[in-house]
Amino acid sequence: MKRFGFLSKYGIVFVLAALVIYFSFATRSFMTFSNLMNVTRQVSMIGISSIGMMFVILTGGIDLSVGAVMSFVNIVTAYLMINLGWHPVLAVVASIALSALAGSVSGFFITKIKVPPFIATLAMMNILGGLAFIISRGMPIHGFPRSFNVLGQGHVGPIPIPVIIMTVIFILGAIFLSKTYFGRYLYAIGGNEEAAMLAGINVIRTKWMVYTLSSVFASMAGIIMLSRLSSGVATTGRGFEFQVITAVVLGGVSITGGSGRVFGVVIGVLIMGVLSNGLILINMNEYVQQVVQGIVLVTAVSIDCISKARGNKQVGTETSIET
Question: Is this prediction's pTM over 0.85?
C-alpha cells in the first residue's frame, strides 16, 4: 500500500523525466534551449486555464466550456479592437468581464437549478462557440497593434512573457489553495459536500465562484493565444478543454474532487507539452497525438479510481479491526 501511495504521489515526476530522456535521445533538437522555451510557451495557455479547472474539479465538478471561452474571447477582443476601434486594454477587460459572466451563468444553473455540471458547461460551450462564429461570420480578424502582440510574443530576457504569467498564476494558485479559507473550502466540498454544508461553508456561493473563476482563467489564456497568433479565429479553442482536463487529472487532482496539489498540475502541464512537442519532432501526425492523449487521460483517471478504491478499502479494514 505504501509503495502504491508513493507511486501515485510521485510517479508523475518519473514519467516526466522518462519522457524528457526518451525525446532527448530520439531527436537532437529537443534539449536545445530554444525548443525548451518553445515547449513552455506552448503549454502556458493550458497552464493558466488549468488552475481554474483545478478549482472546479476539486469541488467534484467539471467545466467543458473553457475551449469555447478561449474562442469567444479571441473573437470578441479582436472585434472590439479592429472593428470598433477600442483600445486593447479596454477590449481585454470587456472580454474578461463577458467571460466571467458566462462562467457565472453556468455556475447559476449548476448551483441554483441543479443542472449537472457536464450538461450546463456543455451547453455553454455550444452557446459561446456559436456566438464566436456569429460575431466573426466565420472569418479571421487580424491587424492588431504591436503593443498587443507583445503579450503573447514578447520576452523578458530569454523568458517568454506567457511563461512568466503562467508561473505567477501557478504560485498564486498554490498560495490560494493552501493559505486561504476559500481554498480549504474547495477541498472540503469535494471531499464531502454535505459535511461541508453542515460545517457552515456556503457551498452554493463557493461552487458558483469557481465556475466564474474557471472562465476568467480560460479567457486570460485566450487573450494570450490571440496575441501570440495575431489573428482571432472562431475555432482557436477547439479541443482545448480536453487538454486542460487531461493535464489537471494527470497531475493527480482526483476527478471526483477533494484532493490534488498545484505542484502535480504543473508536472501534468509539462508532460502534455513535452509529449506534444516530442511527438511533433519525431514526425508523429496530430491524429496519433490525439490517440496518445486519450490513452494518457484514461490511464490517469484509472490510477485515480484504483487509488480511491484502495484507500476506501483500507479505511474499511481499519474500521472493522477497531470494532
Answer: yes
